[in-house]
Amino acid sequence: MRDSLANIFWLGTKEVRSFLSDVVLLAFVVYAFSLMVIAMAQSVAQEVHNASVGIVDQDRSALSRAIAEAILPPYFKPAVPIDAADADLLQDRARFTFVIEIPPHFERDVLAGSNPGIRVSADATAAMQAGIGLGYLQSIIAAEIARALTRTDYEPDTPAALQVHISFNPNASSAWFMGLMGIVNNVTMLSIVLAGAAVIREREHGTMDHLLVMPLRPVEIALAKIWANGLVITVAVALSLTLVVRALLGIPIHGSIPLFLAGVALYLFFATAIGILLATIARSMPQLGLLYMLVAIPMNVLSGGNTPLESMPLWLQDVMWWSPSTHFVAFAKAILFRGASLGAVWQDFAMTLLVGLAVFAAALARFRRAAAQMVG
Fold first, then answer.
1. Which stretches of 240-284 are DSSP H helices?
2. Bridge partners of 98?
3. Could you tell me if 318 and 370 lie in one domain?
4. Could you read off the pLDDT of 194-219 as tens digits, one per residue?
5. pTM for the complete prediction?
6. Residue 246, class by beta-carbon neighbours within 10 Å (0-12 exposed, 13-18 middle, 19+ buried)?
7. What is the CATH number of the domain that holds 104?
């Protein structure tokens, strides 16, 4: 037993040294957990920000001017007056995300109680921003119409008031969510790529033959690659959370980072085993890349990190419940956003470990078969 642990340790240190000497892989890991996380946090926005608005004012009344002046940053750029004949063309050319058309005699008809209509056209190629922006514009226009009717800035009393409390992300900033989810997605990507590349590199350099003729068992070789690559990713995640997410992006982390890193270690056991399994099937790095796209990309997309799991079809929810990536995203959100303790996430931890053991058993069986063929 002691000899096996020593073999696993020294083989793992060889993997770490090999990784540190590979400038391309090292640079890719640094990039993935720094610049890529920053880019995802600051550029992938789901809320409306500086949306362009064109306004066709055919009324030219005090009310129509008030509506135009109420469209302000940071949600919208100041409304730009345009001609009715140019409205469709400008929106086709993506000059404006929203176009508001106010008909003639709009203020007169509003004050007369004849319920005139305003046309608002939205470029829904960006569906999320278009849907949210339409809601904002509807509220702005309704508030200005109510102010014109009551001739006061005070809203009338209502029998009930809606008190909205936004937990864990008071400003509903997508940067907070996307920054942390960028780290989560990169963990899956890099753990599979690094573990798979380690096996492919041994085969391409001919060092796998040297390992197999030594008094080493396949399980020792596999475990060495798992702990070495897992250590690299875990250290990268810890540095990214501390230096990039907290220091550079200013995103607060409500929960325990050590607890999250413990969950990352469990998940890495599964993900690196997936990488070894794919490497026993692939014969080269390009083939490993193709297999990665078939396996890892669906895991990331359907794990609940991009869209809620509850919005997927029931059969797909049942399938993804067996994927550790789903439980990884679940406990990552619970710990980092909501400050959950081990008592709240232990079931996700346990499911990740159980499926990880099953995948490791399958990867080890394939690795032994491949090793026997190479020796033979």
1. 257-281
2. 53, 122
3. yes
4. 888 888 877 766 666 566 556 677 78
5. 0.76
6. middle
7. 3.40.1710.10
